[in-house]
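Hi there,

I know you've been waiting on this one. I reran it after we fixed the sequence typo, so this is the corrected version. Both the input and the resulting structure follow.
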Amino acid sequence: MLFGVYEQVSTAGSLAALPVFAWEVTLAVRLLAKGFDPVGPAAPAGRPVPVAA
């Protein structure tokens, strides 16, 4: 219960959680579709990209 305003499992609580759920799903789908860049950003010419140990 949030300060006694509404129960944890309620229509208001579900509606409030929908934007968060949509953002999480959209981000996951975007990252999976785009892929992860294991190399990272390009380094200036002649300089190697530092690799974390």
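Quick highlight: The longest helix spans residues 11-34.

Best,
R. S.
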